[in-house]
Amino acid sequence: MRNLYIGEDLVSDMGFRRLNEKSVRAKMIEGILSLCAYAIIILVLFYCTSKWEWPKWIIGVTMCLSLLSIPFHLYFLPKWEYRIWRYRISETSIEIIKGFLFKRKILIPMVKVQHVDAKQGPILKRYHLYTIVLSTAAGSHEIPGVSEETADEIRREIEMYARLDDEQV
Amino acid sequence: MNKSDKLTIHRLHPISILYFIIAAIKESLSFIWIFPLIVLFVHEKIGDQISTLMINVTAGSLIILLFLVAAGLKWRAFTYQIQEKGIYIETGVVVTKKRWVTSDRIQSLDSTVRVYDHLFSTRTLTIELAGGKESSIILSCISEEEEKRIRQVLYEYKKDKLREHGEESGLQLSNKDLMVHSLLSPKFGIVFTFLFLGLLKYWDITKGEDRDTLFTYLASWFDSNWILTTVILMILLSFALSLFLTYVSDYHFKLDKNERGEIEIQQGLFEKKHRTIAQHRIQAIFITERPLQRLLGYASIEAVVIQNSQDEQVKKTISFIPFVKKERVKSLIELFTGYEKSNILHTPPKKARISYVGPLFLMGCLLLIPLWVYIPEPYHYFSLIIPILSLWLGWREYRTTGWNQSERFLTLQYGIFFRNTAIIKRGRIQWIALRQTWMQERKHLASINMAVASGKEKVKVSLNHIPYEEAMKIYQCTLEKKEEA
Questions:
Q1: Is residue A76 part of a domain?
Q2: Backbone torsion region of residue A124, taken as left when φ is above 0, otherwise alpha when ψ lies between -120 and 50, otherwise beta
């Protein structure tokens, strides 16, 4: 039996593209920032515990969870994201594959794409990467971490395909 | 209607100043904090000379005057002309805005009779246009004849085609329908619960005191079995209230198809709403069967319609038929919208049972632990119901789930307490997502999510734990329509 799960489908179907390799680094930096946020939360909790004698298990559990999440934030999640994330732009549709525990494969018919945005935060800017946002009349989907040239290319492609048919919403 | 009549400049009924005041108040709500600030400031400065009340009254009346003047000016500046092929509108006090709208750009003409409109026999006409911000024009408070005239002129232009739809086959809800509807609707339960809680609270407050309370009166009136009588009275009262609420929203409900094939819906007691929906704006049809309704064989139908209105009150779906016998659902939908409901649905395979029941059961068991620990000895046996209940819920979902992809329509059935049926036309799905957990991967199952557009937000529908091949079929069918065309 073929096509039994999303992952297998991805191997059998060619034409899927990966994200930019540099997005792993960008994701790691994002991970560091999240860890900093955790650290601040832990400090606040520490203050609360000493000042108002909050139960100790709150800070204990929070610290354990944060410590456990360090390898995930710094290594596994960025790696996995890069390994799993795929996208494909064809004449008729845009497809995105993502998720490790919950695999998701999203299909957006080309005619439904209303507009395409490319956005860039400070971290992505360092690596010259963009996040592409595809908006439909019912919400939007993102392709995070593609290079500037690819972003332009995607935009042009979608523009070209979208012009082919003039179906309404 | 002669030409000069069409070209004269019209103003709205003076009562629409009221509408403009309300609109102005709504707009300025975000500045409301300035008012106490001003009062405070004035109080600081000259508070020792004038009383606070005086300042408040002066400031308040000044603001009311401001609103009045602003609304009056707005009303004066608002003019419209109905012309041969469209409508010309001039608005704005400071910045004058001129809009010229041709009638082929008009998506729908909806009229609402608000409470105060009854007094002056006026109505509000909303002209909805295709696309963009500010895509609706609101003519507040125009007379009935004027509304008819506008409808006529704006539609005359389009009227060249169609007219052959002779058979008027509208649907109306009778008083009896409304009564059963309100009894079965959740309104009844909600009203009853509120009354009951209120009474309990009242009991709680007055319990310790010696003075005559409502309960002592009740006991003296109805003698020994006054509790039973009170409960019956409460049921009657909540029934009356829910009936009233149902009447307010659905009184004189009338569904019609006009000669252009558009659907016209009229409803309401105080606020009469008249809505026109063009066929091509319908994105999906939802049929909901609530538990009680289902038992007695009734259902309600809603439609997801593309709307442009930025109004906060606009709901995601429009109530298409609030209450109807189940047998008629299929034929009514086909008659009015051309949507076809599949009678034969695929059901999830037996191996999917565990996927429906398992996670819910696990959650029920997890919830059981704290309950078991915290609830004292004899009572905590009651919490054993929770895992059993979760098992039953999972089973219900398994039994409800069904789907069918036909040539033109996708029918999905899902839900736990309610049985929902969604009918989506092919090519209306905005995006579709296939999901798989490792459990599902092992069992060759998958879940699908899809979204259709409505005015404000997306409407999402999902189907869980169906065979991967079937999910893939639905997934790929999203696209196929284009190749046919």
A1: yes
A2: alpha
State which residues form the domain around A94: 6-18+87-164
- State which H helix or E strand residue B263 sits in: strand B263-267
Same-domain check for residues A13 and A27: no
Give the pLDDT band of residue B155 (cuts 50, 70, 90). Answer: low
What one-letter code names the amino acid at B125? L
Q: Are B452 and B424 within 8 A, CB to CB?
A: yes
Q: B406 forms bridges with which residues in the sheet?
A: none
Distance between A140 CA and the closest CA of chain B, angstroms = 9
**pLDDT value of residue A35:** 92
Number of structural domains, chain A?
A: 2
Residue % of chain B over a pLDDT of 70: 88
**Residue B145 dihedral angles phi and psi, to the nearest 5°:** -65, -40
- Residues A57, A121 within the same domain: no
The Cβ-side half-sphere exposure at B39, using a 13 Å CA radius, reads: 18
Residues within 8 A of A (CB atoms), B 393-452 only: 427, 429-438, 440-441, 444, 446, 451-452
Within 8 A of B432 by CB-CB distance, chain A residues are: 106-107
Pair B97, B152: CB distance under 8 Å: no
* R_g of chain A, CA atoms, integer Å: 20
User: Which of A91, A96, A108, A132 lies closest to A10, judged by CA?
Assistant: A96
For A1-10, A142-151, B58-67, B417-426, which range has the lowest pLDDT when averaged over its residues?
A1-10
Burial of B259 (0-12, 13-18, 19+ CB in 10 A): middle
* DSSP secondary structure code for residue A73 in this structure: I
Q: What is the dihedral of CA B140, B143, B149, B155, to 10 degrees?
A: 40
Cα A2 to Cα A119: distance, rounded to the nearest angstrom: 38
The encoded tokens of residue B24 equal: 């102005």
Alpha-carbon span B254 to B245, nearest angstrom: 17
Gap between the Cα atoms of B300 and B283, Å rounded = 17
**Per the CB < 8 Å rule, is A112 touching B431?**
yes
Kindly state whether residues A75 and A136 are assigned to the same domain: no
Cβ–Cβ of A102/B436 closer than 8 Å?
A: yes
**Could you tell me which residues come within 8 angstroms of residue B51 by beta carbon, excluding any fewer than 6 positions away?**
none
Q: E-assigned strands of B105-203?
A: 106-113, 122-129, 136-143, 171-172
- What is the pLDDT averaged over residues A10-14? 52
Predicted pLDDT of residue B253: 84
Q: Please say whether the structural domain B3-156 has been given the CATH code 3.20.20.80.
A: no
Give the start-to-end residue ranges of the domains of chain B.
3-156, 278-348+401-484, 350-398
B467 touches chain A (CB under 8 A): no
Count of H helices and E strands in chain A?
A: 6, 7
pTM of the entire predicted model: 0.72
Residue A74 belongs to some domain of the structure: yes
> Does residue A45 sit within a domain?
yes
In a domain, A169, yes or no: no
Nearest C-alpha in A relative to B282: A169
Average predicted confidence (pLDDT) for chain B:
80
| B436 closest CA partner among B393, B472, B401 | B472
